[in-house]
Amino acid sequence: MRVEADRVCVEYNGTVALYDASLSLPAGSICGLVGMNGAGKSTLFKALTGFVRPVRGRIRINGLTVREAQRHQSVAYVPQNEGIDPQFPVSVWDVVMMGRYGAMNIFRIPRESDRRAVVHALERVDLLDLRERPIGALSGGQRKRAFLARAIAQRASVLLLDEPFSHLSPLYIEKIKNLIQELKKEKAIILTDHMYRHILDSSDELYLLKNGST
Q1: Partners of 132 in the beta sheet?
Q2: Can you tell me the distance from the alpha carbon of 100 to that of 16, in angstroms, rounded to the nearest whole number?
Q3: pTM given for the model
Q4: Is the distance from CB of 190 to CB of 2 less than 8 angstroms?
Q5: Which of 11, 78, 123, 179 has the most CB atoms in a 10 Å sphere around its CB?
């Protein structure tokens, strides 16, 4: 398991959002991305997940192209803001089960193994008791943990966490830090946070994004 980006450049309508960004991260490691707002941290995540296509550079995930890695469900992404409509009638259980869609058939009928994966993920983020609650009824921190559970249920080998500690109480910040340390035994992890001390506490190595490049 390895994430490699070599001189990746991304543009939006002719405006450079990411320039010559490079990193190399093996399994069992946590990489912290630091940089000012607008430096390109979220853009790099989008390039690693295939949401945007670089105009130049090379990305390999476990030796595969981004498109191939998508087919293998190799990358799980927890964005900074999910933009959930509070009126949308979907439960915490349903949201976390979405992490299993890539492993299901076209009818998306959960198997027992899918249900076990969801229970396990909810237990790891301490939300099993709230599994029937509508996702819109959760607090910001609870929603953050629910979407982290969805990523855990996916069982990807690479985990991208965009500000995973935002909207969390100090107690749950420590719990999520401990969980990330557990998860790195199974995955390569890249994370960002606006509080640098959380990144320093949690990361094995740091990459600085400055003006859209590392």
Answers
A1: none
A2: 35
A3: 0.90
A4: no
A5: 78
